[in-house]
Recover the amino acids of this structure.
């Protein structure tokens, strides 16, 4: 571990270390208008949702190297309105063009080739190509410092939300594979939430899991099972009862396995844990518990 105080490093190092590790960050593609009504579009990845009821967003805009305000900040201050568009993979390359520091008054819709779409409750345009668009009113702008690079936190509330119906799954949730979201990493790197990058962990908060502290010591000190395997075992709410265990023992396909691990020596312990790992890697957590209980009695 490298341990350091923020002031131990140069501004550049600190920036690299923090942005290169706190990620992937979603991208707020902020559309604003200046006081004369000229459009501006820029990406901001110091961004997240703060609450869904009401829908509150936060994103942060740093001062330019010369200490001046970026156009989005100036416009948000002057008009109190912003449209936050989300960025998916098919938009990413064009979006990056809007990160170029064009002079104020340059229309990044024209530079990047995105299509401006009129909003309904605020004046800035939406980005037609974006699958999710939030029309927002700026609630507050918090300025921490006026030095170059210092951040200004924008707090905004969505007053109208637009979702592309194609991203909706039949059960009315969002299909992440269709949404195909990108995240910002460090340097010029991005990540994509699609296919094998997406995985589910079903651990409903209201269902009280037994936890690591209720796992047998032999499993917790295993050299075969990892924290991931132990968490699968610890994530259940109940253990199988004696009747289920007896039924499991009687099943013919388990007989050979049970015979092989009958002797309580180190070899059979390893075999048990190896088999447990196989069950868990195959997504068979209940079978893993049944097998463990059947062999440990
Ligand atoms: C993906 C991406 C994320 C960015 N995130 C931020 C950010 O969180 N804060 C920031 O100040 N600048 C960020 N930038 C840089 C701004 O987009 C850039 O300074 C832009 O020119 C600002 O435009 P504006 O002056 O029109 O607002 C990011 C750039 C890219 C490409």
């Amino acid at each position: 571990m490298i341990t350091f105080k923020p002031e131990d490093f140069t501004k550049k190092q600190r920036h690299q270390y923090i942005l290169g590790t706190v990620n992937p960050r979603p991208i707020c593609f902020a559309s604003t208008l200046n006081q004369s009504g000229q459009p501006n579009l820029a990406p901001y990845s110091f961004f997240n949702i703060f609450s869904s009821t009401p829908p509150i967003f936060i994103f942060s805009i740093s001062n330019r190297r010369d200490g001046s305000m970026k156009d989005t900040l100036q416009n948000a201050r002057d008009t109190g309105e912003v449209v936050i568009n989300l960025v998916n993979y098919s938009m990413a390359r064009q979006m990056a063009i809007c990160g170029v520091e064009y002079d104020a008054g340059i229309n990044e819709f024209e530079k990047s080739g995105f299509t401006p779409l009129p909003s309904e409750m605020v004046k800035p345009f939406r980005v037609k190509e974006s699958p999710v668009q939030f029309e927002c009113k700026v609630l507050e702008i918090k300025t921490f410092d006026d030095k170059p690079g210092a951040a200004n936190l924008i707090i905004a509330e969505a007053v109208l939300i637009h979702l592309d119906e194609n991203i909706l799954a039949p059960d009315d949730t969002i299909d992440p594979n269709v949404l195909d979201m990108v995240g910002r990493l460090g340097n010029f790197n991005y990540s994509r939430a699609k296919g094998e990058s997406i995985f589910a962990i079903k651990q409903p908060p209201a269902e009280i899991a037994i936890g690591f502290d209720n796992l047998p010591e032999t499993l917790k000190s295993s050299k075969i099972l990892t924290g991931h395997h132990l968490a699968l075992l610890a994530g259940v709410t109940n253990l199988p009862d004696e009747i289920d265990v007896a039924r499991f023992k009687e099943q013919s396909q388990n007989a050979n396995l049970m015979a092989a691990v009958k002797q309580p020596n180190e070899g059979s312990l390893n075999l048990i844990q190896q088999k447990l790992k196989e069950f868990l890697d195959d997504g068979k957590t209940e079978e893993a518990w049944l097998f463990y209980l059947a062999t440990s009695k």
User: Anything to note?
Assistant: Residues 266-281 form the longest helix (16 residues). The chain has two domains: 6-197, 212-295.
